[in-house]
Design brief:
By secondary structure, this protein is α/β, with parallel strands linked by helices. It has ten helices and 13 strands. It has a seven-stranded mixed beta sheet with strand order 2-8-7-6-5-3-4, sandwiched between helices.
């Protein structure tokens, strides 16, 4: 840290993204990426757009916004496009939260929420999950401040039903309720249609997981047009050209081939069931996930030992050090071939612990 770093950020603990080691070839099941490459049309669209990189992109992304609005049955003015869903989440913290408008979220959830709060100097409360790691909707009804909930939650994979989210929105009419649906396409219920009835509800999603677009960096928010106007005020005051030409054109091709990606989501759900059953057969505790990952622990090997042992064998999973979840690991659902390699290495590790 230099002597020039602002005092207001010196106590900031940055978000720690999943590791991306380059020392060897890994079976990568640690960052919730899709195991499937994009369809050929998407790569061609990005290549074509690269030929015009000397020109600024359309800051409004009009064509892409219209296509996305049609896909989600909302109006274009109900959508904001951002550089990954992290950006729309940060815009929301900037636009709707301050010292007089704090925010609350689960204590075990997406690690960026407290970072967004701290960097924007927003007071926050982290509400403990239930003993079974589920979210109690009653903790967020009439809570008296802004709310952000990942649904399905990360790293647990557990999800609320749409009517539970509606109850949170209806009981907090004077506060913004943000539902982060980064993993919703893997079996959970979306709250997008509820945004038509609740002007305080903001739903965020991303192309990263379900649409094989983690490297393309496209997220979006859907809400009442007044909330979107607020978010656009922040966007155009910070980063108006936040969606580059290649991302814009490639994302259009994604939507034109949406059936392909939704079929891949179905495969992920089948692979999730396959891995969950196999690990339970090995004595693991597996939370009932509706995301593209599962959260697991074993009584035969500790969470850190499993993570380190798999890494030595060329398989990456995600381990967290927080006291309550240190015995767990989050495992991304990959291809069947990747999962079979994972299971083979786990069995060998367990045999070595006998």
């Amino acid at each position: 840290m230099s002597n020039f770093f602002s005092e207001k950020y010196k106590g900031l603990t940055p978000y720690a993204p999943g590791e991306q080691p380059q020392d060897m070839q890994y079976v990568k099941l640690n960052t919730n990426e899709s195991p499937f490459p994009p369809c050929e049309a998407v790569a061609k669209a990005a290549e074509g757009a690269a030929k015009k990189l000397q020109l600024y992109p359309d800051p409004d992304c009009k064509t892409l916004t219209r296509a996305l609005a049609e896909r989600y049955d909302v109006a274009p003015e109900n959508i904001i496009l951002t550089n990954g869903s992290d950006e729309v989440l940060n815009f929301a913290f900037m636009a709707f939260c301050d010292a007089d408008h704090p925010i609350t979220f689960p204590d075990i959830s997406y690690g960026f929420y407290p970072v967004f709060a701290e960097i924007n100097r927003v007071p926050f409360q982290a509400i403990p999950l239930r003993e079974d790691f589920s979210i109690d909707p009653a903790d967020y009804t009439n809570v008296g401040c802004n709310v952000v909930i990942a649904n399905p939650n990360a790293p647990t994979g557990l999800a609320l039903r749409a009517e539970q989210i509606e109850q949170i929105a209806v009981t907090n009419p004077d506060h913004v309720v943000i539902i982060d649906e980064a993993y919703v396409d893997f079996g959970a219920e979306s709250a997008v249609l509820l945004t038509k009835n609740y002007p305080n509800l903001l739903v965020t999603q991303t192309f990263s997981k379900s649409r094989s677009f983690a490297g393309g960096r496209l997220g979006f928010g859907i809400a009442d047009k007044a909330l979107i106007a607020d978010l656009n005020t922040v966007k155009y005051s910070t980063n108006p050209y936040n969606i580059n030409r290649m991302t814009n054109e490639a994302a259009l091709a994604v939507l034109q081939n949406d059936d392909f990606y939704m079929q891949n989501c179905n495969i992920i759900q089948k692979n999730r069931a396959y891995l969950s059953d196999a690990l339970q057969g090995l004595g693991f505790t597996v939370l009932p996930s509706l995301s593209n990952f599962i959260f697991v622990k074993s009584d035969r090997i500790g969470g850190e030992a499993l993570y380190l042992g798999l890494k030595k064998r060329g398989v990456l999973v995600r381990h967290f050090t927080a006291e309550r979840i240190k015995d767990y690991n989050r495992i991304t659902i990959g291809s069947r071939e990747q999962l079979d390699i994972l299971l083979r290495e786990i069995k060998q590790l367990l045999e070595e612990t006998i």
